[in-house]
Structure of DNA metabolism protein:
Amino acid sequence: MILIYDKTFEGFLTLVYDVYYEKLKPNSILKERPNNLILEEIKQIQSNEIKATKVLEAIKKRFTKRAFQTILNIFMCDNDDFELHLLNFIIIGFKDKNELFNINNSSIFYIQNLEKQLFRANHKMSGFLRFEELEDKTLYAKLESRFNLCYFLGKHFYKRLNNQNYIIHDINRKLAFIKDETSIKVENIASFEEPNLSKDEEKFKKLWNRFFEAVSIESRKNEKLQKTLVPLLYRTYMTEFKN
């Protein structure tokens, strides 16, 4: 059986509810209906707030805070096919939460490994993210990533830019972490126009590029090593690699 849900956390919790109460045995969980002809039974899961809330409350009661956070973290790995493993993780946790540390189980091993990849990507992006100053003095940073890092990065920089208004914009997911004088939030960005930079921003960008060129030594240039230390994935919006 193939289960299809709407990519939302509420939709996934509804799926968990239906699997438990309807005794479903999925061998695949997809985010959208496949285009090719499939002979297996396909069931579309409709998001249901009541069902999702029941599952969420049950998880909070049964699971440790750390295990619950892992479930939330894995859902940020939205480009990966984690759903079947996460479903198994939750089923195991309801049966015996001590088994959630048993890496001999393939789903437990997968979840732990994927969470580590998420943390590594977040750690790297926190160092490679580049802010630009807008006309209203708001700091603005763009990113593209395999993982949904907006919330993690927003929380990370809140401790370091506490007096600053800033926006961290995930271009592909059309999401933005926004911190201003009155609120902190993650919002969907339906449409996007390139913001106007402050007069000083271009000046500082040129100075930074000049410094970057000045400290480089041509005879010691090692592009292979450079790509290992700063992968191409992170360079898209880095000031020193734009030119």
Notes: The two ends are 51 Å apart (CA to CA).
